[in-house]
Amino acid sequence: MSQSSEQLLRRLRSETPTDRLEAARYFAAHASAEHELALREALSRENVHWIRIALKRALARISPDADHNLSPKSLDQDDIPTRFAAQVYADALEEATSELIHELEPLIGALRLAVEREVGDFDQSSTRKHLDRLDELLEAFSRLRRAASAPKIEEFSLDEVVQGCIQEINLPDGMVVQKAGPQPCVVEGDSSLISLCISNGLRNAVEATCAGGGGDLPSRPITVAWGLTDVDCWVSVVDLGIGFKGNLQRAFEMGTSTKPGHLGMGLAIANQALTSMSGELLLVPNTRGVRFEMRWPAKRLDE
Known about the structure:
By secondary structure, the protein is of the alpha+beta class. It is built from 10 helices and 7 strands.
């Protein structure tokens, strides 16, 4: 590595996690006694799990006989873990969306006030429609920021959250939502992020069912199921609508939508929310309709 030890020691104080991890991994392979004090100081203030592991590896290199709470598996782990990379991405996403919202919110508010005064028949104008669209975009960025933020893990009743999401959805007359799952179903996770994901799945299911054609909505019910295993918690939303028309690999990309007039952020936001909890979101096309399935660990990964 072309950087000097002094430069790398300074990088251990960086506010950027990737900088600190790169420096810590260097010392894990090259640390000597002269670095011990700086490494111990870095370890004392470090709160990122994977960087702490690399720093402990560096200290173990200096003092092999000392107990640094490392397992052989940890000592062999050289690659940046996917989970850590996802967290770095989420941190950057939250920071970027926060700054964007901070800048755009007052501008859009001022613009709306101005055009309400200056545009005749504003309520029926195209200008209002475009401003409403901007408001929707700003709200989507707010949801994306929340989805990218560090989850607040706590126990909650999953069945109650599911029921709350169903009640908040504006169901067309005649549409049926079937429910299946244990009651009570107490799980761990961030209930607000879970609600965000379930609501997205329900809205998509309602739209797909209505677009399926025909007025016999009771014959095409939406099924919401949930449960808990030793490994993970899960919720699925299954519809009998028009099915998924598009590229599944691109479905979770920002701005991708097969529906006219949609921002294409719903699935991306829901996916980020699950990623923040080390979970995953799946879209599974069926012979008729789609299964929207979300899973996240039953227990905290740091336990």
